[in-house]
Amino acid sequence: MNINTTKIISLLFFIFSAFYLYTAYQIQVFAFDENAPFNARTFPIYLGYSGLFFSGLKLILPDPDTIKVEHRTLEYKKTALLIVIAIIYGATILKVGYFLTTSLFLFASYYFLGERRWVLMFLLSFPFVAGFMYLLHGVLEIYLRDPFLKTIGVMG
Amino acid sequence: MTEGILIGLTTALSFQNIFMVMIGCFFGTIIGMLPGLGPMTAIALMIPITYGFDPATGLILMAGVYYGAVFGGSTSSILLNAPGVPGTVATSFDGYPMAQQGKAGKALAIAAWSSFAGGTLSAIYLLFMAPSLSKVSLSFRSPDYFALMILGLTAIAAFSSKGQFLKAMMMVVLGLMLASVGQDSLSDITRFTFDNMNLTDGISFVLVVMSTFAMSEALTIILKRNDPTAAAKQVSLTELGSIKINKEERGKMYRTIPRSSVIGFLIGVLPGAGATIASFLAYGMERNLVKDEEKEKFGKGSVNGLSAPETANNAACSGSFVPMLTLGIPGSGTTAVMLGALLGFGIQPGPRLYMTNPEIFWSVIMSMYIGMVILLILNLPLIPYIARILAVPKNYLIPLILFFSITGIYVMSFNNFDIYLMIGIAVVATFLRLYDFPMPPLILAFVLGGLMEENLRRSLLLSNGSWEFLWDRTLTVCILITTILIVLWHIYKTFTKNKP
Questions:
Q1: Residue A102 lies in a domain
Q2: Residue B183 pairs with which residues in a beta bridge?
Q3: pLDDT, chain B, mean
Q4: Alpha-carbon torsion (B117, B120, B126, B129), positive or negative
Q5: Quick check: B457 contacting A, CB < 8 Å?
Q6: CB of B391 less than 8 A from some CB of A
Q7: Looking at CA atoms only, how far is residue B369 from chain A in angstroms?
Q8: How far apart are CA B1 and CA B8, in angstroms?
Q9: Which residue in chain B has the smallest CA separation from A141?
Q10: In contact, B27 and B377? CB cutoff 8 Å
Q11: B-chain residues within 8 Å CB-CB of A114?
């Protein structure tokens, strides 16, 4: 059986809109605002109904331009790896600091995408990040917190 | 007005701003040449850097990136039949056949001069039209603004989605839903935060742009095994030939450019339309206007066929600044990104912008001329060299895009929750892209969400909760009728397309 993924997405959006609408009705407003023509929950309620309306229409109406995606040709492994290292990057950046985590993130990304020219990989990670950091921190005066560089005495 | 122009000229001609236009045009040309990476990605990547500058410089930089990306897109259309951006698809109809005939240099020169002329003429139209429209828009009331936003969102959904209107409308609603997260602007009541303090201030605009464009485009390229740099590698190997345009060809361009610039500019002004529709309309119009002898050359390397869409797409870029600068309502996804960036600077574009911040209003218009000259200098002699720079392997390009995206978010909040949120939105956006759910309507809706709620609030409070405000004023009614016509036109087009 062929499952139309666009319809599944529409169904998910329908469920999401229903949840959004339910949450919109739960928004606590001030007592004096309860019966006002417009309060904090009015607009979200309209949005919830709009979401139900459009996704409902997409679900009901025929879909002559069905998009077919050939999943076997998609590169899930590398994409998932990139997402995982981005999550690890997010988890470590505050503790380790911008320079080391960003450089390692770039180095790992090049590696997982199949690059093996080590010197180039190194140049486009550590010195590149150092240069970019100088641009942000030194030239544009955008503060970058970096416990690692602070520990080794490079940054104040 | 003269004083404003002089202020703008002084600001635009400062060394820093000329340098920014150059950087923007150069960077935009590179990104625009890469199929799949459009002007929105290029501008999104630039936003965090612009926050280090004053608003005028930031906007000038983003505008330079915009023209550069459209310009760069035409190069890959002509040389490889692989348009970098949708606005340059029509360019490939006659540009690519010309390149195949060994006249690639000439095709590039025609495209460059047409873009230059189109951009310059439309900047002149903008110069005169923007202040007048600003004055007119001062009479707009909340119901008119609310209706105008409905029109903008409907139009971008109708025009951006290649027959997928409902999908685009779902993206509009999703964008508005994302914009509703955080504190209500009037009562300060938190909404949809689920007791998470990180969401109290709402979701950052830069985060949404970065995740739905830059990051999700990078992930899509990996997922689909595309190689955007493959095209660039071929460009450097192409024999370009002479870039000289003869007298007869110039004569044809003189007739094509003025009319195409007018149509391009007017289409650009319309909310939701933009460079793609402008270039197709100009191409179609030109084919109808030329002599039968020339008509037969269309699709086989016609000078008029190449000049018309190139003039129109650049004119449309300038035209799309009109609703943003004068009404504070962006007409396209790209100008929505710029509007979001301006709001980030604490500046509210709108009818009073040219009075309250003349240096921003006029310097952007003035920088357009400078940008066009720089693009002409860039595109003609430097294209083969730029193409060589582009031959950066995909294995480096993708991590660098991810790096700029994540860094952009990190330096704005120094909060890893934003990085997680960004990854989450990017994954969803990548999945939606696979099934042709368009992202520009989401961005436009996200940017307009707050303003839309504000104007609906005022309208409903003034009319004591009645929806009569929608037909109380002639202007509101006119705008709503236009919206209905767009929807009906779209339904008609879908119906006729699916008819056996």
A1: yes
A2: B190
A3: 82
A4: negative
A5: yes
A6: no
A7: 27
A8: 10
A9: B52
A10: no
A11: 395
Per residue in B91-132, pLDDT tens? 888 888 888 787 888 888 898 889 888 888 887 888 777 777
Domains in chain A, number? 2
Are A29 and A56 members of one domain?
yes
Label residue B162 by pLDDT band (50, 70, 90).
Answer: low
| Segment B414-448, tens digit of pLDDT | 888 999 999 999 999 999 989 889 888 898 899 88
CB contact under 8 A, A38 and B399: no
| Residues of B (292-331) whose Cβ lies below 8 Å from A | none
Rg, C-alpha atoms of chain B: 22
Name residue B287's amino acid.
R
Give the whole-angstrom CA distance, residue B177 versus residue B179: 5
* Residues 6+ away with beta carbon under 8 Å from B382: none
Q: What is the pLDDT of residue B419?
A: 93
Range of the domain at B304: 2-498
Shared domain for A77 and A136, answered yes or no, is yes
Check A47 against B191: CB less than 8 A apart. Answer: no
Q: Are A43 and B51 an interchain contact pair (Cβ–Cβ within 8 Å)?
A: no
- Is B192 in Cβ contact with A20 (below 8 Å)? yes
Q: Which amino acid is located at A92 in the chain?
A: T
Torsion of the alpha carbons at B338, B343, B347 and B350, rounded to the nearest 10: 70
Domain extent, residue A42, equals 5-68
Predicted model pTM: 0.81
Q: Is the ipTM of this complex over 0.85?
A: yes
Residue in chain B nearest A31 by alpha carbon? B187
CA A154 from chain center: how many Å? Answer: 32
- Which amino acid would we find at residue A84? V
First to last CA, chain A: 63
> Which chain B residue's Cα is nearest to A115?
B395
DSSP E strand boundaries for A63-156 = none
Q: What is the pLDDT along chain A (156 residues), one digit of tens a residue?
A: 456 888 999 999 999 999 999 999 999 888 888 888 899 999 999 999 999 999 999 999 887 777 778 888 889 999 999 999 999 999 999 888 889 999 999 999 999 998 889 999 999 999 999 988 887 777 767 777 788 888 887 776
Does a structural domain hold residue A23?
yes
Nearest CA of chain A to the CA of B465: how many Å? 4
